[in-house]
């Protein structure tokens, strides 16, 4: 099993013909993702040659869905055009929109998130500013390297792209059902809680690894959710134990105000909910391994 994405997912790429879009479309195709088209109004009706694979280019998301049955869009559109691209995907009713683009203004993200809600939440948004979602051996929507792990029984949800890759690599012998990079911006679509709920309901996910970071209260809210709703073992890591107070670190959402949002406060909240929290990524991987190997 997998969450959000599986071997039957039909993926289109908005911004496929740009440099980043082309580069990562190659990688996604190589990892077995069923990419059925790209979207670029200026190149509609043409085909893009992606390393010898001819991928049709459509004028709109709606047209791509109509012609191919696509149910996932990966969005590599530059920041100033990203809001319109996501709204187009939502208006077309696509089931999953994975927004890779970094640097989208927060008010644009808030706008398209509210638009998705107004449209009845038919489109799940992952991101923005995220590495995407992968169900190893089945499908890969985004920029997560497909060759660092294989299929298995761990579910991973993370705010950090690089820590996603590190944990996947350190636990590669056990493998993953799905890994979801939710992004570190202040406004995101899919949250820790959304992924935790999906992993809880997935019969083949036996253990959940959750990576958070300083700033905001998402991890505290996730801890409260775990306590009430999650029966599977959860292992956590909070990036930013050494971050100075009042500094924005890396991701736009990672700013600490007073005692709220610190790594220590988040660790405490998670441990109170029964989550084992590692002090380093490697210690977190070791905690996960100990539970799986029992």
Automatic annotation (TrEMBL):
Keyword Ligase: yes
A GO term from the CC aspect: succinate-CoA ligase complex (ADP-forming)
Domain CoA-binding: 4-104
Active site: 251
Domain of life from the UniProt record: Bacteria
Binding site for substrate: 165
A Pfam family annotated for this UniProt entry: Ligase_CoA
Catalytic activity field: succinate + ATP + CoA = succinyl-CoA + ADP + phosphate; GTP + succinate + CoA = succinyl-CoA + GDP + phosphate
Keyword line: Ligase, Nucleotide-binding, Tricarboxylic acid cycle
Coiled coil: none
Family named by the database record: Belongs to the succinate/malate CoA ligase alpha subunit family.
PANTHER family: SUCCINATE--COA LIGASE [ADP_GDP-FORMING] SUBUNIT ALPHA, MITOCHONDRIAL, SUCCINYL-COA LIGASE SUBUNIT ALPHA
NCBIfam families assigned to the protein according to its UniProt record, in alphabetical order: PRK05678.1, sucCoAalpha
Function: Succinyl-CoA synthetase functions in the citric acid cycle (TCA), coupling the hydrolysis of succinyl-CoA to the synthesis of either ATP or GTP and thus represents the only step of substrate-level phosphorylation in the TCA. The alpha subunit of the enzyme binds the substrates coenzyme A and phosphate, while succinate binding and nucleotide specificity is provided by the beta subunit.
Assembly notes: Heterotetramer of two alpha and two beta subunits.
Protein's recorded name: Succinate--CoA ligase [ADP-forming] subunit alpha
Species of the source: Kibdelosporangium aridum
